[in-house]
Amino acid sequence: MTSGPIPEIEAELAKLPPAVLEAYNEANGAVKESFGEEEIGLWAKEGLTIGTQTVRSWESAIEYYRVSPEVSKFLSFPSFMQWARCGTYLAQDSPTLAVSFFKASVSIVPNLRPQYIPRWAGLGRSLYKGTWKSSTLAAKFFEVSPDLVRNLPFWDVEVFASLIEALSYKSYDVAGECLVLGRDVLPAMGREREPFLAMSRALIDTSWREVKTCLELVPRALQLVDESQTGRFLKLGERLAKVGLRNTSRFLSDGTQALSKVPQGSQGYILDLCDALVVITPDAVPPFLKSLDSVLNRITVSQLDTWFQHGAHLLQENPESGIAFFKIESNKSESMLETLSSSLELDRVKGILRLYCRALAGTGLEILDTQELVRRNIGWVDEDTASTDGTKIFLPPVVDHYPSKQDNFSWFKVVSTHQVAHLEFGSFEYEFEKPAALFEDRRHETEQKMLELKEAERVAAKEEYEMAARLLTSGAEGDVDMSPGYEDPNAMGSLRTFTDIGRFLEIFENGRLVFDIFTVLEDCRLDYRIKVEYPGIQKASSRVQGETLEKRPRIEDMPLQQGMVELLIHMSLDKFQDLPVAIEYKEAGEMLSRILHQLRTAEADVEDTAEATLRAYEIISRVPNEKEEDDQFEEQDLEEPGDFSEEDYQSLVDQLQAGMDASSDGGDGESYESPDPVDYRGDFKPEMVQLLTKLQADSGGDGEAQAMTQEMLEQLLQESPELELDAEQGEVDSNMSMFAQNIMKEAGAPPPNSQPGEGYGPLLHDDDGGGELEAREPETFVYDEWDFRANDYKPRWCIVKEKMVEEGDATFYHEALKTYKALSNHIRRQFELIMPESMRKTYRLMDGEDIDLNAALEAWCDLKMGVPPDEKIYWHRKRNRREVAVVFLLDMSASTAEAIDEGRQTVDDRDAPDDPVEYMVWLRRRREGLVRRNYKRIIDLEKEGTTLLIDALESIGDTYGIYGFSGYGRENVEFYVIKDIDEDFSDKVKRRIDKITPLHATRMGAAIRHATTKLEKQDAKTKIMFLISDGRPQDRGYSREGVEKEYAVHDTHMALVEARRKDIIPFCLTVDKSGHDYLKSMCGDMGYEVLADIWSLPERLPMLYRQLTSVR
Amino acid sequence: MVETAAPTFKEYAIEEFLVRDEPYYRPIGDEIELFTAAYRQHIPVLLKGPTGCGKTRFVEYMAWQLGRPLATVKEKGGKEEQLKAGEIRVPLITIACHEDLTASDLVGRYLLDANGTRWIDGPMTRAVKNGAILYLDEVVEARKDTTVLIHPLTDHRRILPIEKTGSIIEADDRFLLCVSYNPGYQSALKDLKHSTRQRFISIEFYYPPADIETEIVQRESGCSKEHADSLAKLGEKIRNLEEHGLQEGASTRLLIYAARLMSEGIEPRRACQVAIVWTLTDDHELQRSLEEVTSSIFE
Question: Choosing among B244, B292, B297, which should be mutated to test the A contact, i.e. which has the most A CBs within 10 A?
Answer without folding.
Answer: B292
